[in-house]
Design brief:
The complex is a heterodimer of chains A (213) and B (633).
Chain A lengths: L1 E9 L4 H15 L3 E6 L8 E9 L12 E6 L2 H6 L4 E10 L6 H9 L8 H8 L6 E4 L1 H8 L5 H11 L7 H11 L5 H17 L12
Parallel strand pairs in A: 1-4, 4-5, 5-6
Antiparallel strand pairs in A: 1-3, 2-3
Chain B lengths: L2 H5 L5 E5 H11 L4 E4 L6 H10 L6 E4 L3 H13 L4 E6 H17 L5 E7 L15 H5 L3 E2 L4 H18 L3 E6 H4 L1 E6 L13 H4 L7 H22 L6 E3 L5 E6 H13 L7 E5 L1 E3 L3 H8 L4 E5 L5 H13 L4 E3 L14 H12 L7 H11 L14 H18 L4 E5 L17 E2 L4 H12 L3 E7 H18 L4 E6 L2 E2 L5 E2 L5 E2 L3 E2 L5 H8 L3 E6 L3 H13 L4 E6 L3 H10 L7 E3 L9 H6 L4 E3 L5 E3 L9 H5 L5 E3 L5
Parallel strand pairs in B: 2-3, 2-4, 4-5, 5-7, 6-7, 10-11, 10-13, 13-14, 15-16, 15-17, 17-18, 18-24, 23-24
Antiparallel strand pairs in B: 1-8, 6-12, 9-11, 19-20, 21-22, 25-28, 26-27
Helix pairs in contact in B: 2-3, 2-7, 4-5, 11-14, 12-13, 16-20, 17-18, 18-19
The chains are: A alpha/beta (213), B alpha/beta (633).
Amino acid sequence: MSLNIFICGVGGQGLVLLTTVIGNACAKIGMKVVTGEMYGLSQRSGAVSVHLRIGEDVFSPLIPYGEADILLSLEAIETMRYLEYLKKDGVVLMNKRIMHPPVETSKIITSKGAKYLTIEDVVSKLKSWTPNIAVIDALGLARESGNVRTENTVFLGCLSALEAFPVDENAIRESIAEAVPQKTVEQNLKAFDLGKKSAHDSLCTLVQCKQPP
Amino acid sequence: MVLKDVLSKEKKNAFMLGNEAIARGALEADVKVVAFYPGAPTSEVLDTFAEALDKFDYQMEIATNEKVALEVCAGAAFAGVRSLTAMKSVGMNVASDTLFVLGYTGVKGGLVIVMADDPHAHSSQSEQDGRFFAPNAYIPMLEPSTPQEAKDMVKKAFEISERHRVPVLIRTVTRVNHQSGIVQLGELNRGEFKKVKWKELGEEYATLGAVARQKKLKMLERSAKLAEEFETSEFNLTRNAGSDVGIVTSSVSYLYVLEALKMLNLQGKVSILKLGTTYPLPKSTVKAFIKDLKKVVVVEELSPYLEKKVYAIAKDTNPHLAIFGKNSGTFSEAWEYNPNVVAKGIASAMGIAYAGHGVIVKEAEQFKEIIPDRYPTFCAGCPHRATFVALNQALKIQAAKGQEHYFANDIGCYSMWIFPPISRGDSSLCMGASVGVANGLSHVIEERVVAVVGDSTFYHAAIPALIDAVHNGNKFTLLILDNSVTAMTGQQFNPSTEFTAGGRQGKKVPIEDICRAVGVEFLEVVDSYDVKNNVEVFRKALDFDGLAVVVSRRECALYGDRNKRSRGEKIVPFYVDKNTCKRPYVCLRTFYCPAYELDEDRQPRISPELCDGCSVCSQLCPIQSIKRVEVET
C-alpha cells in the first residue's frame, strides 16, 4: 500500500516544513518516504509544490498523473494548477484562502466586469473532478492557535485524522516539536489539534477517518 | 531533515534532501575544505555546510564565482587535503577553464565536484547537459538516483579521487538534488584540521606545451584504468529478467523506469541496466547486457549521451539490436521526464498498449482556464520593485523627451522583471552578461542602453565588462542593485556584507569603491526605497554622455526581516485609508505588490500578514491615503 499526497501553495506558507515534519516522522517509525520538491526561486508569493509519497513500492520522486490520493492546497487557486495529479475520486484538502497574484488584480482594475476568482468558484468547478472536497479555514485556525504562521501545521492535523494517513500521530507531534522554533512549539501543537478537529467536522463526513479520541 | 541529522553520530535512518545527503556524505568522508557559489538546485549543499560550520573543523568559503570556488578546492587538494564544491552546470561553464586543466595536473587530496543539471530549466537559463564535461576533460563522473546514493557516491568519490589522483564529478539533476528520502547515516569520524608542509609533499601541478603533451598520455592511461575499475562498481546495477527487451538508464530516470514498469504491470519482467558510473563508461558491462537482447530502450534526460555509446557498442556486439531512444523518436531531448513520459516510451518501444496520460492532462487543462497565472514575483518589501518603479518613471519621462532605450537584464531576483504584469527586458543571458552586451550594443544601436546587475552577479562576472566599458569609453547606464546578499538562492552572504559563510566576520568590498577604482566618472549611490529622488538620479544617469553607474542599495526584504526579528523589531504594516482613498489605483497600476488586493467594493486593501512595511506604496499614492498602522510602543 502506498499513499501519494500532492502538496501545493504559495512561497512563504511553509510547505517545505510541512513535508519535513512528515518525512522525519516516517524516518522515526521506519516507513519509506520519497518526495520531489519544487521551489526554484527563493522568494515569496510564487507557486510552490511538493510530491510526497509514502510506502514500500514508491520509487519516483514525482507522482504519476492521476495517482495522488490527496491534493493538499494551502492556497485555493493553486488547487486547480495541479489537478492532473489527483485521482478522479481523490480527496481535496483545501485552504479557505486565496492569495490573489498581482497579475489577477492588475487585470481587474484594467478591464471592466473582471472579477476575482472565489472559493465558491473553485469548489464548484472542482466538484466535477471529485466529490471529496474539504475546505479548511486554516488561517482562522492558525490565528486561534496564537500564531498566524501555523497554517501548515493545521493541515498536518487534518491529514492525521485520515484513516489512509499511515503515519503515527505521536511521531508527527514529536516531529513538529523538533522542526519548529522552540518558542512556537505550543502554538504549533495547538494548531495541529485544531486542524484535526476541523477535519473531523468536515472531511470525515466524506472519507474514512480514524476514530476521534 | 533537521540539522541534527547532519550532525548525528548515531548510525540511524534520517529523512534528507539530496543536497543534505551530499553534505553528510562529504562530512563522513572527513572533508576539510569546502567552497561554493550558490545556484539552484545545489544551494542547500552550501547552506547545510554553512549551518554546520560551528560544529566541525573545516574551512568554508562562499566564493565570488564557481571558478574561484573550484580553485579554492583545487588548492587544498594539491596539498593533499580533501575538498568539495557544488555548482549548477551553468556554473561549470564558468569553472570549466580550471576543470580542464585539473584533468592534466591531477590532485593529491580527494577533490569532489557536484554539478547539477536542470532539465526543464526550472531555475536556469538553459537546459544544458553537463555530462559532456566529463569525457571532454577526462574527469570521472558518477550519477546518483536517490539521496542515499548521492551520499554513498560522494564518499566513494573521495576514495576514487585519491586513488587515481583526479577530481571526481558527481552529476545530479534537479530531481535528485530536490528529492528527499530515507538515508542510512554512516560513521562520522572527523579528524583534526592540521596544516601541512608543502615542501615535504614534493608535489608539482604545472602544465604547458611539452609537459601537457606528456600529461595527456597519462590522462588517457588513467581513464582506461578507471573504465576497468568501473566494470565492478557497486553503482552499476544489472537486473536480469531474461527478457528480449532491456532498459539502459541512469540518474533519476532510473526511478521513473521502476515506476513506469509498475504502471505497465511489467515489474520484474524487463531487464534493466542502471549505470552509476557514466564516465568512463564500463563498456564490458554494457556489452554483456545488450549482447542477447532484441530491443534496448535507453532512458535518459536531455542529450543522447548514453544512447550514442550504446549504438557504438552494439555495432560490434549485437548489430541487429533495435535501439529506442531519442534517435528513434521514442523520447525527446527537450524537457524533463516523469513516470508517465517514460511509461509511454517503454510501451511504444515494446509495442504494448498504454492508454497514456494525454486524456487526464487535457481534462485538467480545462480547469486551469479559469485560474490566473502565478509568475514568480518580487516579495512584498523587495527593494528591486522600488528601484524599477523609479526607473520606469525615469524612462517614461526620458521617452517623452525622445530618448529611447534598450534594457539589458541579468541573472538574479531582478530577472523577474521580464514576467507579467511588468514584462520588461530586451535581453537576459547569463551571469554578468548585461554589462558585456551593453558594451557591444552601445557601439551599434541608437537607443540608450540600460544594463542592470545585482551585487552578487557584479562580483561574480560583471567586473571585467565594467573595466572594458571604462577603458573603451563606452556610453551606457549601469544600475547595480545591491541588496546585501545573494537573494535568489537563499540570501547567502557575499562581499557586499562584512560576513562570510556561517555569519563569520569578513571584510566588506563596497561596490562603489570598485567602480571608483576602475575610473567610473558618473557614480551615484541611492536608497532603493527613495523613489522620488531616484527618478531624478536615474534621469541624470540616462542623460550623461558617458558611462553612468548608479548603485541602488537596500537590503533584501527576506534578509532584512530575519535581521529585524533577531533584533526583536516588529514589522509594522501599512493600510489603505478607505475614507480618503479615491481609488485612482496608482498603487496597483505601478507597484504590483503581492500584499495588495481588492475588496468586494474594488477598494484596494493591504493584507497585514503579507505587508513588509517598506512604505514605498505610500510614497506613490497621490492622495496620501496609505498609512502606517499605529502600534502602541
